[in-house]
Amino acid sequence: MYAVIKTGGKQYRVASGDKIKVEQIAADIGQELTIDQVLAVGNGKDLKIGVPLVSGATVKATVVAHGKHEKVRIFKLRRRKHYQKHQGHRQQYTELQIGAIAGA
C-alpha cells in the first residue's frame, strides 16, 4: 500500500517503512505525527484519488532526526565589471519514518 502526501509545499509518494526527508517540522525526535493531507492512496490495482484530498485517509510517521542538506553555492558574476558575489545556503530538514497508512 502506498500514499501520496503533501507536506511543506511538496508532494511525496510513500509506503510503509520508508524514510523521507521533508521540510523542517517543529517536532521532537521520536514524536509520532499524523499527516492528514493525503492526495491519493493506492493498493495494487486499486487507486483512490482525492478531490483534492482523500477524506478519512491518514499516514502515521515518526520523527527520526533533524539536520541540514548539503550546501548550495550561489555565485554571481558580471563580466568586465569586477563584480563577484559568493553566497551559500543550507536548507533544514526533518527525517520521517513512515508507519501505518490508513486509506479510508
Automatic annotation (TrEMBL):
GO BP term (any one): translation
Keyword Amino-acid biosynthesis on entry: no
Key words, A-Z: Ribonucleoprotein, Ribosomal protein, RNA-binding, rRNA-binding
Superkingdom of origin organism: Bacteria
GO cellular component, one term: ribosome
GO molecular function: rRNA binding; structural constituent of ribosome
Pfam families: Ribosomal_L21p
Subunit structure: Part of the 50S ribosomal subunit. Contacts protein L20.
The family this protein is said to belong to: Belongs to the bacterial ribosomal protein bL21 family.
Known role: This protein binds to 23S rRNA in the presence of protein L20.
Entry-linked PANTHER family: 50S RIBOSOMAL PROTEIN L21, LARGE RIBOSOMAL SUBUNIT PROTEIN BL21M
Record HAMAP family: Ribosomal_bL21 (MF_01363)
NCBIfam families named among the record's database cross-references: L21
Protein name as it appears in the record: Large ribosomal subunit protein bL21
Species whose genome carries this gene: Ramlibacter albus
Name of the gene: rplU
